[in-house]
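The instructor's notes for this session suggest beginning with a concrete chain rather than abstract definitions. Hand out the sequence below and ask the class to guess, before any prediction is shown, which regions might be ordered.
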Amino acid sequence: MKSVHPIKRWLRHAWSHPRHVSGLFPPDSLKHIEHAIAQSERHHAGEIRVVIESGLPTYAIFKGLSPRRRAMHLFGHFNIWDTEHNNGVLIYLLLADHDVEIVADRGIHRQVGEAGWQQICQHMEGMFRSGQFESGVLYGIQAIGEQLAKHFPPEAISRNELSNRVLIL
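After discussion, reveal the predicted structure:
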């Protein structure tokens, strides 16, 4: 994240409201994303979770909380790290900062590495810049799903350890 004066960043986040999320991700888009997660998880033993946040609270901005640190906090808060095979993956969108973060549990992170996740994030951010919000998230799910399928094939007994519902904060 580029260094931005805290007051400028606060203004951007103050004007960002959860209603803006529904403008970019209407109910049908959220259903498509949830369906894509469910379909992806049929092809691997991993878990994908999507969290979209319009903006950070004031205290977080003045503490200098980065989107990466926020994503890591949410990864723990929503127990994405607590999958049986350590293969949970969070896609976190912070709309006010125009940022995408992927946080992966150690089992899958060892296989893909930081460069692999950054490549997916950058592609998603490029799609978002051209206004393709739903398609950008669907691309991320597909790309992450391919990595999970390569390293964590589906199990005989399929179970869904994390909800596929998109969380909007």
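Then share the key points. The chain has a mean pLDDT of 92. Helices lie at 6-15, 18-24, 27-40, 58-62, 67-77, 106-129, 133-151.
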